[in-house]
Amino acid sequence: MSRAALTAGQEVTVRLVKSGDTKLRYPAVVAGDDGTHAVVRAPWGRTTVRDFGFVRFEPGDVFTEHYWRDRWYAVKEVRAADGTLKGWYCDAARPAEIRPDSIVIVDLELDLWLSADGATILRLDEEEFAESGLEGDDPAAASMARRAMDELEALARAGGFADLLG
Question: Where along the sequence do coiled-coil regions lie (predicted)?
Answer without folding.
Answer: none
